[in-house]
Structure formats: structure tokens, C-alpha cells
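Could someone model S-adenosylmethionine with this protein?
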Amino acid sequence: MLTPAGEFKFNSTGGLIEFKSIDSDEEVVKLLMTPSAAPTTSEDVRFFLSHQHMLVEKTGLTWEDYSEMRRRVALGLCQAYLARAPGDDELIIEALGTLKDLQKALNILALRLAQNYTESGVAPAYEGEEISPETIVDTGVSHTTNVSEGLARQIKALIEYRGGLEEELEIMMMRTAPNLSGLAGPLLGARLIAAAGGLGKLAVSPGSRIQVLGAERAMFRHLKERGDPPKHGIIFQHPTISKSPWWQRGKIARSLAAKLAIAARIDTFSKEDRSEALRADFMRRYEAVKKSHPSEPRRMKVVRAPKTVKKKGRRRGRKR
Amino acid sequence: MKETFPGVAEIDGMLATVNLLPGERVYDEKLVETGGVELRLWNPNRSKLSAAILNGLETLPIKPGSKILYLGAASGTTVSHVSDLVGEDGVVFCVEHSKKPMESLLRLCIRRENMIPLFYDANHPYRYASLMEKVDVIYQDVAQKNQAEILEKNADLYLKESGFIMLAIKAKSIDSSKKTDEVIAQEIARLKPSFKILEVIDLEPFEKDHVMVVAEKNAKL
Ligand SMILES: C[S@@+](CC[C@H](N)C(=O)[O-])C[C@H]1O[C@@H](n2cnc3c(N)ncnc32)[C@H](O)[C@@H]1O
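Reply:
Sure, complex below.
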């Protein structure tokens, strides 16, 4: 159906560097590639747009032939770019990973900065107070070393960058997965996508799997050494679970995970935002759990009490 | 049936456009035939432009033969009707930066010869310059915080003198903490240096907290 316009070549960063047309002469190709292939100035672009008809005429093409050629180049380029473009969920995973490492780096740098201050003793104003990079950077300490000042500036820049990235991640989540974002919150939603390895994979996961996503180590321990199975993975971060007493958590987690599974499916297959209804459904279930299990059950204590030394040989014989 | 604008029909309170590709549907719209012409019903709950027309829009700068730059084309629901409106002699340059909607949009562009897909970020209008030309109308529906800036950059490069803009503003995507009216007033104020505001249409009950703004580029001083 689509007549290929020719062959495209890209550089390692995805920029178009070459276009081999199958049927038109070099001048036309050059014209079609003009601003986007080579770095050009804004004057070049403006000149191109305001003298386009003349430039096309010079190549000997009619405007109709030129437009047809342009359309085919656009279709071909679009197809080529699509083939190499990361999906929205991949961008989300990338941003999330970057945020995580950024946080690690900031922790190390902030510690270094605080150490510089305490060791050099040039920040008496902060005695007794916790020295955070924000306080150092923002209050502009007067006695400071060059090294610390430079470091503080970089930390500040990184903190700003982190803020922007968090915002961007949130926007991407609201757009790509409005239902997950509405139910779990954008950040937890993103973590679930990352733990599953993509939105599509999350959408085909049953609730039982979503419930323990991110608790793979506990699950493995459970299967291998027969400890308790994990009741929840990263969804534990959801306030309805983390703020509930331990005996309610498993039930809430199960119901939240089931709703999240539905949310992920809607996000993958229709994108229609039904998060309000999903959240209302879940909250009803949540209230019901709270109501029917108000106090700590006694039975669990008995199970937990005897702490005997386990031996491998005996374990093997136990029932699963 | 009556014709509200060139190429736009109204049948029993529903809008429709003349199908550029008779027999083909784009989303789940209904096809109806009247007097040998096939029309595609235009759902105001799915398309803000349809909602704006139903809510009394007076100027529709998108006409047969118009050249349109459409920013935020998504999978092409509204774009397909714009493509019907401009017809064989018009062009719709469709900018969309998200992979998934672009996959459907590309399929649509392959079928509809007046549509050109541009898989780019509208924040960087230079990147698609070689595939563009000057246009009569910029239609923008990107639902982004910096939508005013995106529009400004694109209009600066691509909008003809005395061209028009049609801008869907979603208050929530700009600032969810402020009141809708405030956000909209602030966004409209941003347009004023470069554009003459012609109409502001509320999209209730089809879309909450949305308006459609129609404006004309100010003549260069
Ligand atoms: C509300 S939807 C548009 C719906 C469409 N106008 C319709 O009525 O069928 C917004 C679209 O804008 C796209 N978008 C947002 N920011 C963009 C940008 N900077 N460049 C290109 N597309 C963008 C999004 O990917 C999304 O598909």
C-alpha cells in the first residue's frame, strides 16, 4: 500500500543522516532533507519556508510532484522512526530508573558536603542543625571553600533537575496510564510498570502476581525455604496498606491488586479514564475489610510464638 | 439536514462530515448516506471540535482547501474530520509525539492522501521544517502545561500572516490547583500579544473544564 520513498539511514542518536531516494534526483532529495538532516540556523528555516515555491521550481518539479514526494518521505520517515522509538512505558521506566540513581548520587554528594562543612568548621551557624544541601545552598553560607561552593551549586542543579524529572514522570504517567495513576498514584504506578517490565506485561499479569510484584526475593524464599508467602510487594507503599494494621494488609493488598490489574488492562487497551469508578470500588472494599476485621486476631500469635531451631533434614519431610 | 459550515452537515442535532473515503470508518463512527453523499457522524463526546461547533462556534477557519497544522493529533479521531473538511485540495500536517497513537495515525495517513504524519515533539518545530509549508490554521490540542509556548513557537514559524489558531485548553492539565476560569483567563491573556481573540467556547457538557479558543494572528506592526 505504501510506496517506499527510499532508504533512510540514521546516526547513533537517531538523527537522519542519509536518505537514498529510489526515483527522484538529488536536488529534490536535498530540498526535502534540508533543515532536518543537517543542523541549520533559524534563518535557513525561515528562508526555506518563505521561498519554498521558488526553491521547488528550481529543481524542475511541479508543486504537485513535490508535495507527493514530500508525503512519501514523511510516511517513510514516520515508519522508520516508529520502528526505533521507545514506547511510552519504556520512557517511564527510564525516568524512574534515572530518578532512583539520581537520589543515590544526591545522598552521597550531600553527605560529602556536610562532611566538608563539619570538618572545616566553617559553618558555625549550622551547629546542632542538620545540614542538608538545601540549607547550605539556599542560605548561602559566607565562609566556605571553593570546593564546597562548587559542589553545593552542582547539588542544587541536580535537585532542580530531579524536580523537573518527577513532574515529567507524573505527566507521562497520567497520559500513558491514567487508570493506574488514579488508583495507585503516578509514582507507585510507574514502579509497578517497571517491576513488571512494561505496561503490556503488567496488563497481562493476574492480580495475584501484581500483589507480590517487587517481592520476588521473599517469594523465592517462601518457595525454597517455606517461609510465609509475601502478602504484598511494592503495592505495600500504597497508604491504604502501609497505614493499616498488619492483619488487614493481606486482604487489602489482594483487593487493590485485583483493581490494579483491571486498571492496567484499561490503560493498555482503551486508555479511557475510569479511575474514579475503580477507586470508588476499591475504597468500598477497603472500608469493608476495616469493618469486618477491626481487631488483632489471636490465632496468629500462637503460630508465631515457638521459635525452634530448624534443621534442613526435617524440613524436607514437611508438607507443603 | 442543513449545512452549518462548508462540509459540515447537521442531522437531527448531530454533526457529520462528508467522508473523504466513502465506505471507510476511522473509529466507531456511524456512516449515513443522504442524496448520494456519504457522511460520517461526528461525535461531540469524542471530538472537541464537534463539541465547539454544537456549542455555537461562529468562525470555522478550517475550510475546503485549507492547509492545517494539527498539534497533538493523537490517533486521529478529530483529525479525520478535519481531513474530510479540507478535502482533496487541502493538507493536514499531523504532529504527534507519542508512539502508540502514532501507530494508528500512520495507518490513517497512508489511507488519506491529504494527511501527513509528523512523529515529532511540537516543542521543537524546527525538526519537522523540511516536511512543512506555511499553513492557514494551527489547531492545537496537546493538553500540556506549556501549551501556550508550544503554540507560539509553531505559529511563529508556520502560520501565514492573518492565519488562524484554534486552541483547545484543558484547565486541569495546566494547573490543577487553580480555578478553571482563572487558568483559562491566564492562558488567553498569554495569546493576546500575538493574536486577536475571536471566540471562546465552553465545551460543557461534552468536556469538563475545557474551552476552545479561536483567534487570528495580529498583523505585523
Ligand atoms: C488530548 S489528546 C488530543 C486528542 C485529539 N486532538 C482528538 O481530538 O482526537 C493530546 C495529544 O497530544 C499529544 N501531545 C502532547 N504533547 C505533545 C507534544 N509536545 N508534541 C506532540 N504531541 C503532543 C499527546 O501525545 C496526545 O496524543
